[in-house]
Amino acid sequence: MGAYLLRRLALLVPTLFGIILINFIVVQFAPGGPVEQMLAELRGSNVSTIGRLGESQGELRGPPQGQAGEGPAGTYRGARGMDPAVVAEIERLFGFDKPAHERFLTMIKGYLTFDFGESLFRGRKVVDLLWEKLPVSISLGLWSTLIIYIVSIPLGIRKAVRDGTRFDAWTSGVVLVGYAVPGFLFAILLVVLFAGGSFVQWFPLRGLASSGSAEWPFWQRALDYAWHMALPTLALVIGGFAGLTMLTKNSFLEEINKQYVVTARAKGAGEGRVLYGHVFRNAMLLIIAGFPAAFIGILFTGALLVEIVFSLDGLGLLGFEAAIRRDYPVMFGTLYIFTLLGLVMQIVGDVTYTLIDPRIDFEARR
Questions:
Q1: How far apart are CA 86 and CA 54, in angstroms?
Q2: Domain boundary at 113, 135, 162, which?
Q3: Is residue 120 part of a domain?
Q4: d(Cα 348, Cα 67) in Å, to the nearest integer?
Q5: Which residue range is the domain that position 245 belongs to?
Q6: Total Cβ atoms within 10 A of residue 365
């Protein structure tokens, strides 16, 4: 197992490099980059933009009316009618005065020490932004994944034991209906019903804590945290039951009909002993080992619209806004972290396989 882990860890570097390189190349051909957006804001006399540029250049002149840009200004549509010196300063400010390969190498060197640079439009370090948004996304991903597993596994086992009964039929209907409702649509329904939309306001609609909660006792802060997390977590959980419940049921049904189960029952083992002493380890191999991947999936892909609906400023919303604004340092910084975590979690999943079933050996060869 040690040699296998070393090989997997060694593959992290070229895999991560390849993913970042491909996305960097794709971004170079995407229209509407940060320079174009800054020039568009300048043409609209955006005060904050002009002030920011003024700090770095000293004094900016307004764009000449009716004058076409020359030189670097001809590169961008938004540069038409702008002073070439202003365009050149914007390119220098964003680092676009250097060739693409130099910018990529500089970015990779910084990533080796987890230095992701500074956001182009927020004026803050990317690392600080990630640390600030991380608690929201971890809270949503962790609690929703745990609740899905805690509910789906016992329900799937019960459905397997009572396969074909009325209990199996109506629970399948409920689970599939929940799966058919998109998480964000259910989130809107929860807001309308319980967060002051049209009926009652039993739950808050913004953030993870009430104002002034930092001064409260620990138990009161914990209750306040749970109060804020109730509706967003429920919105993510409602659509996650179906797949795991049916996978658990089918895994148990497959194992229940095998010879070793028949032998255990013939020896007089009780139903609980058969299910949880013999069947559970084999049936739950894929389910439990898939927990790291499930957590990463909910953490980084399933919470974006829920964060928007409940005004939760997490990683999903941060990445979405960075993509819209073409905030490349934030885009690539979040991509780097997400990819690294995803690759590490794949290795953790493989290790989990061997912990659950020691018979699995990834180094075995025929």
A1: 10
A2: 113
A3: no
A4: 60
A5: 127-356
A6: 4
Helix (H, G, I), strand (E, B) or coil at 125: strand
The CA–CA distances, whole Å, from 261 to 174, 270, 284, 358 equal: 30, 11, 15, 20
What are the CA-CA distances from residue 228 to residues 190, 234, 310 (Å)?
13, 11, 10
pLDDT per residue of the chain (366 residues) written in tens, 0 to 9: 677 778 888 888 888 888 888 888 887 777 666 667 666 666 664 444 444 444 444 433 333 333 333 334 344 444 455 566 666 666 666 666 678 788 888 888 888 888 888 887 787 888 888 888 888 888 887 888 888 888 888 888 888 888 888 998 998 888 888 878 777 788 888 888 887 767 777 888 777 778 778 788 888 888 888 888 888 888 888 877 777 888 888 888 888 878 888 787 787 777 777 777 778 777 777 677 667 666 666 666 556 778 778 878 787 778 778 888 778 888 888 888 878 887 887 788 777 777 776 776 666 654
- Written as one string, the DSSP assignment of 199-261 is S-B-S--SSSS-TTGGGS-HHHHHHHHHHHHHHHHHHHHTTTHHHHHHHHHHHHHHHHTSHHH
Q: Which two tokens stand for residue 31?
A: 């229209």
Per the structure block, which two tokens stand in for 232?
A: 């967003």
Q: Cα 12–18–23 angle (5° rounding)?
A: 130
Residue 190 domain flag: yes
C-alpha distances in Å from residue 270, one per residue of 162, 237, 273: 16, 34, 5
Q: How far is CA 206 from CA 198, 225, 319, in A?
A: 17, 11, 19
